């Protein structure tokens, strides 16, 4: 894995951006600001107007857009849409490079890489771990996966998009696996916060009043538990002097029961309760919460 950190860039080569949704517009804007000759294409032409005012060139046909540059950065809603869009442009793409920053699944990425190889197109898969407003800023991170030489060729060109450009390796599906892992972390941690707020609101406490306690809890209890869990998971040693599954089994019963009693949806905590109970039933009551990873792997 390699990680370069810099948004300034001396590669001002031509680039085409396919897709001018919220994210594609941010990507194209970053290239224009960097001084790259930027050609843009979007199904709804009107979305290109502001970019054209800044110096981008809009082409009404996708084939023309592809012909305009040796590197095509794609960011549309799904791989299905992208496959459809470029499926008829294999001849124009031959010998060029597609950097695909559309989100999907690892299998979507591997299938498109296979199609690209069949048609003589160089392919780099990627996923953006940032919102459009962060594009071009040092804190933006993009994961890339695919042939190392294609990443090495395009690394300079891609620098204006993010401060952190992380190459994950030759498996084209790797960027999407990391993306989905981090999204799982995002949705489950925020859902935990929303569930907590629904509980405390039932006692008349506002979200804002509760939030400083949530932040302290995250900082001093949850954040340190993550590297500690990683060590336990990688070593396979789940012995704990912090908090056992047995203790958590009793505590989560209170959470599920109280949620139900208060009319707060309990499905989210009941799903975690089921994982804990399964591990305890399998004889792991003395193990740490990190051993739940084994329950996830039995899905
Ligand atoms: N926004 C974010 O915070 C964010 C963060 C990380 C990753 N991403 C990923 O970036 C990708 C784009 O997201 P976005 O936020 O830019 O979405 P968006 O604003 O909804 O834009 C979707 C883009 O896909 C195009 N599109 C959709 N269906 C099409 C079709 N049938 N034919 C041609 N073009 C079609 C749209 O064209 P029209 O303009 O003509 O509708 C538009 O360019 C997604 O895979 C998303 O998961 C987004």
Overview of this protein structure:
- Keywords: Oxidoreductase.
- This is NAD(P)-binding domain-containing protein.
- Residues 15-169 form the 6-phosphogluconate dehydrogenase NADP-binding domain.
- Belongs to the HIBADH-related family.
- The protein is built from twelve helices and nine strands.
- By secondary structure, it is an alpha/beta fold.
- It folds into two domains: 2-170, NAD(P)-binding Rossmann-like Domain (Rossmann fold, 3-Layer(aba) Sandwich); 202-296, Orthogonal Bundle (N-(1-d-carboxylethyl)-l-norvaline Dehydrogenase, domain 2).
- Strands 1-9-8-7-6-5-2-3-4 form a nine-stranded mixed sheet, sandwiched between helices.
- Helix 10 (245-262) packs antiparallel against helix 11.
- The longest helix has 29 residues, at 207-235.
- It is elongated.
- The structure holds NADP nicotinamide-adenine-dinucleotide phosphate.
- The site of NADP nicotinamide-adenine-dinucleotide phosphate has 20 residues, from helix 1 and helix 4.
Summarize the SSE layout with pairings:
Blueprint: E1 2-5, E2 15-18, H1 22-34, E3 38-41, H2 49-54, E4 57-58, H3 62-67, E5 71-74, H4 79-87, H5 90-93, E6 97-100, H6 106-118, E7 122-129, E8 141-146, H7 148-158, E9 164-167, H8 174-201, H9 207-235, H10 245-262, H11 267-281, H12 292-296
Helix pairs in contact: 10-11
